[in-house]
Amino acid sequence: MFLKFIFSSLCAFLCFSCGNSKSHNNTPFIIKDSFVVNNVDLLDDSSNRETNTLVDTKSAAVEDNETVLEDDSTSESSDYFYEKNPNVISHKYYELLYSEEHEQPFWVKYVGTKEHVLDKKYKRKNNFREDPLVETQSATLSDYVKSGYDRGHLCPAGDMCFSETAMSESFYMSNMSPQFPSFNRGKWKSLEEKVRKWSVKYDTAIIYCGGVLSDIAKTIGSNKVSVPKYYYKVVYCPTINSAVGFIMPNEKCELSLSSYMVSVDSVESLTKIDFYNNYLPNVQKSFESNSTLSFWF
């Protein structure tokens, strides 16, 4: 209990004090509509949006619009709206927003379904390679050689067993982030397995994950791939209109998974990313502000 209190306090502190060690100044970075700037809104369209300090994750590549929720407050509008973000890299079964500075994604988004999780036709082939869709070029295999870090999947290969294409694309280097072996093969793997169980139990799960790129321990390789100190994952299951978040240190994690559980709002505060922003604000608020432990553990 004491360890859980200490970790929770640390997460709360990070939400307010994280600095980007790769930045040339001490001002926090702001992300809007996928463009990273330093406290300057380059894309202000005078739309008076209240979330212009958060990253825009809207896209039309992953078709989770099948999970539209009905809005009882109006008969003329949906809770879900569909808008393509031109800076998102879209593979067939997952998508990402790539950071050239950090040589990894700000976020990766994928959708787990009961049908896909239970369909285990294809095994992993470890076909690690550069992502041809990253115009500035992604990290390379050589960046990780003798670094002491695993090429940690963000969109898990274990979720892509239903399709040869899906499995193959999950090994693009743009889907990797440097993780300590004890973390990648320990609690991070356990969380991936847990999410797959939720995808089966609740039929569909919409997932975002990545490293916390505002708090970097070091860089590796000739491309200077950032090593995040922390990783996050958020999961939303539309059938129960509930979501859960996790913030975990990039090290051997000794606590139970539930000890790293936080609200989606908490993850957004730490990462400055606005997840699920293709849902109307009132709908987001209904599942992002808190998590019901009994739904998940």
Task: Give a concise summary.
This protein has helices spanning 2-17, 114-118, 141-144, 164-169, 181-184, 187-201, 264-271, 281-288, 293-296; strands at 30-32, 35-37, 55-56, 89-90, 94-99, 104-113, 150-153, 176-179, 204-211, 216-220, 225-228, 230-237, 242-249, 261-262, 273-274. With 297 residues, it is α+β, with helices and mostly antiparallel strands.
What does this structure look like?
With 297 residues, this protein is of the alpha+beta class. 24% of the residues lie in helices and 24% in strands. The chain has one domain: Extracellular Endonuclease, Chain A (3-Layer(aba) Sandwich), CATH 3.40.570.10. It has helices at residues 2-17, 114-118, 141-144, 164-169, 181-184, 187-201, 264-271, 281-288, 293-296, and strands spanning 30-32, 35-37, 55-56, 89-90, 94-99, 104-113, 150-153, 176-179, 204-211, 216-220, 225-228, 230-237, 242-249, 261-262, 273-274. The strands form five sheets. The protein has a seven-stranded antiparallel beta sheet with strand order 4-5-6-9-12-13-14, sandwiched between helices. Mean pLDDT is 80; it is low at 15-53 and 59-77.
Please outline the major beta sheet. 7 strands, antiparallel
Which percent range fits the helix content? 10-25%
Total number of domains: 1
Strand content: 15-25%
Report, as a whole number of angstroms, the end-to-end distance. Answer: 17 Å
Overall CATH architecture: 3-Layer(aba) Sandwich
> What string gives the helices and strands in order?
HEEEEEEHHEHEHHEEEEEEHEHH
Mean pLDDT: 80
The CATH top-level class label: Alpha Beta
Number of β-strand runs? 15
Number of helical regions: 9
Query: Could you name the CATH topology?
Result: Extracellular Endonuclease, Chain A
Helix/strand structural class: alpha+beta
What name goes with the CATH superfamily? Extracellular Endonuclease, subunit A
Task: Tell me the radius of gyration.
Answer: 18 Å
What global shape is seen? globular
Which ranges are low-confidence, i.e. pLDDT below 50, for 5 or more consecutive residues? 15-53, 59-77
Q: Taking strands numbered 1, 2, ... along the chain, how are they ordered across the largest sheet? A: 4-5-6-9-12-13-14
